[in-house]
Design brief:
Strand content: 25-35%
Distance between the termini: 31 Å
Number of strands: 4
Largest sheet: 4 strands, antiparallel
Order of helices and strands: EEHEEH
């Protein structure tokens, strides 16, 4: 189940906007209107407190971070052993 803090948002040159949606297609018309005034406006995915280019990029980063965390803990990481 996706977190409620994951969504698409429109970013302008001077910062994020209040335009947010779960589906990318819902924001595309608004993005086109904003790009007519500010060509640097982009659509970004917000997840885990960061902005990403796509949900897949955020998911891949999370997956790699979990793998790294698992590898960093050996079998003797607990004081009691197993």
């Amino acid at each position: 189940m996706p977190s409620r803090y994951t969504y698409w948002t429109i970013i302008l040159a001077d910062g994020p906007t209040s335009f947010r949606a779960r589906d990318r297609d819902a924001l595309v018309p608004t993005l086109k209107q904003l790009q007519s005034r500010d060509p640097q406006a982009v659509l970004k995915w917000f997840a885990n407190g960061r902005l990403w280019d796509s949900p897949e990029q955020a998911h891949e980063y999370t997956r790699l971070a979990r793998m790294t965390w698992r590898k960093s803990r050996g079998p003797d990481w607990r004081p009691g052993g197993d």
